[in-house]
């Protein structure tokens, strides 16, 4: 069994690699990405589209390349994925500038400093020139200032983009608009560094410029709360209800509970949420209609914080749970009924074992095995969320984070949340197998 679970654990990195690579490739190939959106904004929306359709544009190659570099689309997809993984260095900072006509040098201000880097081109190669001893005003620089500038410039690298490469980028993003002439060489001043998944970083959001890891951690308490409450309520209600339905099969208790749970299963969570917001929240005013907590949550006492949290999450929890009761309840009922009709239970009762003991001591343990297979998968509830429910109640959870990342084509956020969700799902499935082996001694995984 140890060898089986060890193999399963070793397969997790390969699984995550395949999932993230597939989503990364699809995102890069799909039209309507961040570069297209930024260029459409510069062109003025529909007016810009008509202008491009006529083969004209007011944009220069330099503007298009600046957008491409800002959105980190100036490298190949393979290279970009390697940077996200952290196996190749990425450009932590970069700035580009075109060489003046008939000149082999260009000056670029180093981001975050007062220094200016002079880039000298020699054919298709370029280098950063050593700092000059005199400043722009002709006054000599001190040795300390020279040392600081030399140290700072040593952290930076430069690469060239030839006119032909720039034309390829132009044709890629501005299809239908031809260049009247090739641009000059372009120098890219960049500061390289390893900053990927292997270094514990999920990158930064292209839209909000915040670390993806911090964005996930900010929403983790919301997701953990709903996930734990979902699991606690579902198992504490559905298991006893399923046992009761199996014992009282075809009685009014069984029929009434079936009508109730299947009616709830038929109602979408977001529809129930809208109804609760209008009636319970707006008209009756019993519960708050938006947010995870109140605006004054931090100033409340612990007891009042619990009340505030319960009041704000009562309606969202009802929407999350309404469709989950039917599956778990009926799974428990059907499994228990199958085991109650098995030969070993009939034999036990024939030998004088009481019916309650036959149910809970003999049949229940075997009936819980299929339930155990679903427990580990509930780890994925931490990042599942519900976009529509969170939208209705204005809760900034994982559902909204994933939704906005897809809508905005925010690649680092998409990949970060996907990696987190896929890792939890894979671990959850292994945990489910462990629970099955624990409850069922016949399972050995050899």
UniProtKB/TrEMBL annotation:
It comes from the Bacteria. It is found in: Cell membrane. Residues 220-436 form the ABC transmembrane type-1 domain. Residues 53-63 have a biased composition (Polar residues). The keyword RNA-binding does not apply. Keywords: Cell membrane, Membrane, Transmembrane, Transmembrane helix, Transport. Belongs to the binding-protein-dependent transport system permease family. This is ABC transporter permease. It comes from Luteolibacter soli.
């Amino acid at each position: 069994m140890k060898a089986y679970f060890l193999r399963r654990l070793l397969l997790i990195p390969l699984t995550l690699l395949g999932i993230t690579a597939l989503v990364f490739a699809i995102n890069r190939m799909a039209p309507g990405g961040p570069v297209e959106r930024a260029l459409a904004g510069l062109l003025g929306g529909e007016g810009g589209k008509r202008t491009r359709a006529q083969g004209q544009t007011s944009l220069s190659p330099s503007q298009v390349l600046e957008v491409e570099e800002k959105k980190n689309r100036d490298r190949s997809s393979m290279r970009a994925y390697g940077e996200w993984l952290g196996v190749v260095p990425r450009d932590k900072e970069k700035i580009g500038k075109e060489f003046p006509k008939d000149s082999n040098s260009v000056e670029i201000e180093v981001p975050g400093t007062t220094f200016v880097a002079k880039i000298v081109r020699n054919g298709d190669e370029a280098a950063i020139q050593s700092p000059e001893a005199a400043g722009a005003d002709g006054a000599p620089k001190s040795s300390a200032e020279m040392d600081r500038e030399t140290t700072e410039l040593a952290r930076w690298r430069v690469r060239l983009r030839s006119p032909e490469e720039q034309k390829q980028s132009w044709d890629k993003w501005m299809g239908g608009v031809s260049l009247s002439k090739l641009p000059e060489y372009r120098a890219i001043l960049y500061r390289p560094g390893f900053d990927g998944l292997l270094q514990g970083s999920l990158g930064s959001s292209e839209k909000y410029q915040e670390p993806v890891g911090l964005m996930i951690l900010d929403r983790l308490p919301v997701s953990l709360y709903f996930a734990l409450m979902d699991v606690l309520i579902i198992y504490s209600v559905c298991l006893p209800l399923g046992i009761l339905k199996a014992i009282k099969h075809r009685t009014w208790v069984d029929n009434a509970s079936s009508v109730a749970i299947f009616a709830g299963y038929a109602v979408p969570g977001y529809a129930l949420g809208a109804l609760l917001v209008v009636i319970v929240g707006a008209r009756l005013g019993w519960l708050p209609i938006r947010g995870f907590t109140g605006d004054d949550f931090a100033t409340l006492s612990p007891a009042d914080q619990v009340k505030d949290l319960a009041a704000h999450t009562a309606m969202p929890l009802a929407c999350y749970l309404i469709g989950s009761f039917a599956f778990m309840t009926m799974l428990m009922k059907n499994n228990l009924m199958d085991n109650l009709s098995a030969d070993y239970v009939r034999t036990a009762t024939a030998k004088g074992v009481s019916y309650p003991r036959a149910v809970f001591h003999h049949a229940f343990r075997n009936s819980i095995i299929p339930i155990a297979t679903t427990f580990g998968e509930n780890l994925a509830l931490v990042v599942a969320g519900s976009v529509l429910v969170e939208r209705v109640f204005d809760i900034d959870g994982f559902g909204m984070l994933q939704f906005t990342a897809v809508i905005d084509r925010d690649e680092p956020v998409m990949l970060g949340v996907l990696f987190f969700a896929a890792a939890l799902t894979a671990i959850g499935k292994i945990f489910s197998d462990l629970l099955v082996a624990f409850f069922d001694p016949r399972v050995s995984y050899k």
